[in-house]
């Protein structure tokens, strides 16, 4: 788990609601978990996390 800059706050990443993200999930399921799950985020979305 990646820690948040503001402890206790929930993260927001718009891409998690995109059809492309769900297609990646389905592809991974069809391939029995073999592959890479890429979660795209903007620089502002990335700033939510301590990275």
TrEMBL record:
Top-level taxon of origin: Bacteria
Designated name of the protein: Uncharacterized protein
Source organism (scientific name): Crocosphaera watsonii WH 0003
């Amino acid at each position: 788990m990646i820690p948040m800059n503001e402890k206790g706050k929930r993260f927001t990443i718009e891409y998690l609601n995109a059809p492309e993200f769900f297609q990646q999930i389905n592809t991974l399921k069809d391939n029995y978990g073999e592959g890479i799950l890429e979660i795209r985020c903007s620089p502002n979305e990335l700033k939510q996390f301590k990275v």
